[in-house]
């Protein structure tokens, strides 16, 4: 997980305002979570206006 350009463009007070809404502390990470022995399965898709989200699970082949 890493910050994107939209996050970097936010003023620090806006970033802090968003952070306060999170239930957990988040930070950038370089941890490999690819799990090469598993396959990705999209279990659900959500859309609203121009936005979309896929809920995915990892399963054994």
From TrEMBL:
<feature type="domain" description="Bacterial HORMA">
    <location>
        <begin position="3"/>
        <end position="57"/>
    </location>
</feature>
<protein>
    <recommendedName>
        <fullName>Bacterial HORMA domain-containing protein</fullName>
    </recommendedName>
</protein>
<dbReference type="Pfam" id="PF18138">
    <property type="entry name" value="bacHORMA_1"/>
</dbReference>
<dbReference type="InterPro" id="IPR041162">
    <property type="entry name" value="Bact_HORMA_1"/>
</dbReference>
